[in-house]
Amino acid sequence: MNEKRVAIVTGSSSGIGFEISLMLARNGLTTYATMRDLHKSSMLTSIADKEKIPLRCVQLDVTDDMSVKQAIETIVNESHNIDILINNAGYGLSGALEDLLIDEIKLQFDTNFFGLIRATQAVLPIMRNHGSGIIVNISSGLGRFGIATSSAYASSKFAVEGLTESMSYELEPFGIKTILVEPGIIKTNFIKAAVLAQKSKDPNSPYFQFMNNMDEGMKKLIENSESPEYVARVVLDAINDSNPKLRYLAGKDVEQIMEIKNKMSDEDFHNMIKNMSS
Ligand SMILES: NC(=O)c1ccc[n+]([C@@H]2O[C@H](COP(=O)([O-])OP(=O)(O)OC[C@H]3O[C@@H](n4cnc5c(N)ncnc54)[C@H](OP(=O)(O)O)[C@@H]3O)[C@@H](O)[C@H]2O)c1
């Protein structure tokens, strides 16, 4: 078990984290599929038992310092090393900026940004002592460009992008690689699990119609979206690359939009997104 690479995935109860956990374990990595509520582990556990793949579920809530500490201790006691951390746990907060409460934004950042930092800081001493490791941060297309009603989510993912770029310079000398994976729209529980800001529920909100338009647009985009397995494959290919890139797009939609963005001025790109969302 120890000569196999050991991977930890956060937010494995559903969607992208669920599929990454399975993909890694099916490819022989000793995989710790972590989740905040272990009652949601039965599906993963039963697939792992049936397929006899090296996957184990461990409780880890990225917003809880003690939970992160205990999970990492449990894993290190068992496996003596951590080779790969996939920071995947996250959710969306939607609402126009004026309608967002500071506490709603703080909760968004506590999961998507500070949660990722908690898990990363807990594994870094282990990877640094070992002189190797890979940290994969699941960002988003919305870590590269903003859209209306997603300011809190997009800014949490922009923060993940800046953090990852900066830490990559610090960690490379210790043999630790950092990778950003930027999915487009992916068919998961993400939309159902998204939190709608309290004030956005009020039909008197000046942004109520805007919210409805964005909702309708999103429903159409989801119809043609990629599966979470697509993202899991991108992650597997990235961690198996001996010289991985800093950024990987995951989804035809985000690949197309970034290709266009890279050829346009900021002003032209801004106008294009504005026309798409009106
Ligand atoms: N789906 C998309 O279109 C899309 C696009 C770009 C980026 N992403 C990113 O991909 C990642 C995974 O999202 P998904 O699409 O797979 O959505 P999902 O199906 O809703 O999965 C989100 C996962 O994060 C977990 N989570 C939330 N808060 C947590 C916490 N405090 N501690 C530990 N786990 C927590 C959820 O656990 P519970 O089951 O307990 O809630 C769930 O396992 C997120 O970072 C998201 O921002 C998604």
UniProtKB/TrEMBL annotation:
CDD domains: 17beta-HSD-like_SDR_c. PROSITE patterns: ADH_SHORT. GO terms for molecular function: cyclopentanol dehydrogenase activity. It holds the Pfam family adh_short. The keyword Oxidoreductase applies. Its EC number is 1.1.1.163. Keywords: Oxidoreductase. It comes from the Archaea. InterPro entries: NAD(P)-bd_dom_sf (IPR036291), Sc_DH/Rdtase_CS (IPR020904), SDR_fam (IPR002347), SDR_oxidoreductase (IPR051911). This is Cyclopentanol dehydrogenase. It comes from Candidatus Nitrosocosmicus oleophilus. The lineage of its organism: Archaea, Nitrososphaerota, Nitrososphaeria, Nitrososphaerales, Nitrososphaeraceae.
